[in-house]
Amino acid sequence: MIAFVPLSTVDGAAVEALLDRAFGSDRHARTAYKVRGDAAPLAGLSLAARDDDVLIGTVQCWPIHLHGDDGRRYDLVMIGPVAVEPERQRDGIGRQLMMQALAAAKVEGSDGALMLIGDPEYYGRFFGFDATHTGGWRLPGPVERHRLLARGDDVPAVAGMLGPVVTAPT
Ligand SMILES: CC(C)(COP(=O)(O)OP(=O)(O)OC[C@H]1O[C@@H](n2cnc3c(N)ncnc32)[C@H](O)[C@@H]1OP(=O)(O)O)[C@@H](O)C(=O)NCCC(=O)NCCS
Fold this sequence. Notes:
Blueprint: E1 2-6, H1 12-23, H2 31-36, E2 47-51, E3 54-68, E4 73-84, H3 93-108, E5 114-117, H4 120-127, E6 137-138, E7 148-151, E8 160-164
Parallel strand pairs: 4-5, 6-8
Antiparallel strand pairs: 1-2, 2-3, 3-4, 3-8, 5-7
The structure holds coenzyme A.
Coenzyme A binds at residues 22-23, 80-84, 89-95, 118-119, 121-122.
């Protein structure tokens, strides 16, 4: 039976191995990894799917900022990677992972400004993400603009640079 559990309860090495199988082991060079930086994933929004204790899918979410050219700093939640074990794909697991992460964001009140880099044919069709407000966003690496997607009432439709949340040294 498939169970959805907090990502923090799953072996980290198994998660990394699944991500390598879904995206390739060169995935760390992707622009999305630079956007999120070294921040820890958002615990309440990062989930794993297990089938009889075998990891079959995962979604991770991250706190990020848009540093607006207007001088303001906007909070966003970056979703991804979303990954399903290749032989278990197209069986609704990705959709369930996303729906649970989106529901958790709503409960936490952090669903006002969500973004991701992904296929609009999937994230638009099932979850309502689009590129309407992201045209002015710059990223610390290459991105296909039509794959730069967002959702939520507070998505900043302003020009600016996306990057990690930087916490002041203590
Ligand atoms: C993309 C991914 C997360 C989707 O999860 P999944 O469990 O395989 O997909 P679901 O069962 O939830 O959804 C299946 C439906 O989505 C469609 N779909 C799946 N991936 C798609 C994609 N990249 N683009 C367009 N449609 C897609 C399928 O055609 C299917 O449509 P149908 O119901 O009309 O047949 C999964 O395939 C995966 O891990 N892929 C490799 C990693 C990746 O590309 N992740 C996304 C970028 S963050």
